[in-house]
Amino acid sequence: xxxxxxxxxxxxxxxxxxxxxxxxxxxxxxxxxxxxxxxxxxxxxxxxxxxxxxxxxxxxxxxxxxxxxxxxxxxxxxxxxxxxxxxxxxxxxxxxxxxxxxxxxxxxxxxxxxxxxxxxxxxxxxxxxxxxxxxxxxxxxxxxxxxxxxxxxxxxxxxxxxxxxxxxxxxxxxxxxxxxxxxxxxxxxxxxxxxxxxxxxxxxxxxxxxxxxxxxxxxxxxxxxxxxxxxxxxxxxxxxxx
Amino acid sequence: xxxxxxxxxxxxxxxxxxxxxxxxxxxxxxxxxxxxxxxxxxxxxxxxxxxxxxxxxxxxxxxxxxxxxxxxxxxxxxxxxxxxxxxxxxxxxxxxxxxxxxxxxxxxxxxxxxxxxxxxxxxxxxxxxxxxxxxxxxxxxxxxxxxxxxxxxxxxxxxxxxxxxxxxxxxxxxxxxxxxxxxxxxxxxxxxxxxxxxxxxxxxxxxxxxxxxxxxxxxxxxxxxxxxxxxxxxxxxxxxxx
Lengths: 242, 242
Description:
With about 240 residues, the first copy, chain A, is an alpha/beta fold.
């Protein structure tokens, strides 16, 4: 199975100004593509840290997706960080420069043109519905932090990451708490090693006390684990199967 | 200035089931305490990865805060990971076991009692309003992933992290885009090196196009940077100062 990492870049996320909205979006794209997202590191707008993280994460995962730091201002250092990680210079893409010229026309400034910078050797991924391409340097996708734009790029990731088997996920919602259901859960975990099983307590939810999730690649296997667990619960303690 | 890292643990965050709600809460607590949160690593429920991350992050930051993986089920391996990072065994805390006994009474199971496990040598931080203490192993705070409980623990972090100067944050909202305001911004960035300045474009917001933020420890310094930038903007392009 292919693996991926995310590198989420931005002081605003670590200073409590905003909560990240992009990781869950990327995670769902990768689940549908059958790619295992193994970690997401959130860091500050620091060139040397970005470069070091990209170097490590890109070399230890099949794909790396960065989020944030791609505008024209002083705190946008992701492109330079990715270039440094691959030991290449930052160059101006003629294609992106043309796009900027036709978008801004007479209002174009030198500042705007900085958005045409790419690591040397990067490719541009675009499609009919995408005005602004995605910059991809080897196995590193450089995505913008603005949630609406980050979201808009997802179909292009999905279109390139073919060949994987999508994950499937089932669930059991129960009125038992984790301490009560643990013996039954442990048995199913032991007997269904190929299924990733998670247990999530709810806090003051009137409907159910714990959600058990069953995830994997082979639908029959995942469903069998879910059903085995459900059948092991005492009568009347299951709220719902999903 | 003291530094901190966060370790956010849970398959559910990397499989797209839910978006994390805890990082922004912790970030705000640390800002108010004058502690610089330098990174947040989100990882899977994997014992060896947790142990390795705790070892590195706890030794390179003044504080480490973990979120998630502290219940009694098979996927709750944070306590064991922290213990392994410090090369100590997991032991049962008599204080926590007593709390569980009095809470559950006759309903107490062996599963429930697993929530009394702590790394040997960990201390318990509690207070009048806190029924269940926080486990703190040296400089590592072990916090639960359930957002309501994570939130409830924040005052106890704040009470222990004394001595820092809270960060202050000001902002300018403008109708200029980043390409237009860059020359003025670069000048202020150059002349106010002790102030962290951020630039955040809005996407299809009718009110303003860019938010510039000014963060630091010394209020006068931060305000001066904000005001210098505001004064450098053309008339009629400022929407609001914050």
